[in-house]
Amino acid sequence: MARIAGVNIPTNKRVEIALTYIHGIGRTSAKEITAKLGFPPERRVQDLTDAEVLAIRETIDRDYTVEGDLRRDNAMAIKRLMDLACYRGLRHRKGLPVRGQRTHTNARTRKGKAKPIAGKKK
């Protein structure tokens, strides 16, 4: 099992697909990496040599923000909005949808399980 950016990527999948298991690398980035290193699209992770795995690891470290660093950057961006007390920051702080969605109905992902209100019949 190859370990890249602190993630064990599956060995029986194509390299292009296996790289998407790393947080911060999607299909497009994975295709760019494999094209840059010259791997054919049907190449499997189990067929890679140690040198090729090292080349992938170095390319990702050099050109992409992934895993812990990316999560930290996202958390810091949200924290900055909350500290500014701008509208988006207040929505994050209250746990409500940030991007203008309706909240009268729906929005259960952000608001959590519905809480019953006492005495609200009819």
TrEMBL record:
Keywords: Ribonucleoprotein, Ribosomal protein, RNA-binding, rRNA-binding, tRNA-binding
Annotated GO biological process: translation
Single GO MF descriptor: rRNA binding
Listed GO CC annotations: cytosol; small ribosomal subunit
Start and end residues of each stretch annotated as Disordered: 95-122
Phylogenetic lineage: Bacteria, Pseudomonadati, Pseudomonadota, Alphaproteobacteria, Sphingomonadales
UniProt xrefs under HAMAP family: Ribosomal_uS13
Family indicated by similarity: Belongs to the universal ribosomal protein uS13 family.
Function: Located at the top of the head of the 30S subunit, it contacts several helices of the 16S rRNA. In the 70S ribosome it contacts the 23S rRNA (bridge B1a) and protein L5 of the 50S subunit (bridge B1b), connecting the 2 subunits; these bridges are implicated in subunit movement. Contacts the tRNAs in the A and P-sites.
Self-association state and partner proteins as the record states: Part of the 30S ribosomal subunit. Forms a loose heterodimer with protein S19. Forms two bridges to the 50S subunit in the 70S ribosome.
Taxonomic source organism: Sandaracinobacter neustonicus
Name this protein carries in UniProt: Small ribosomal subunit protein uS13
Keyword Ribonucleoprotein: yes
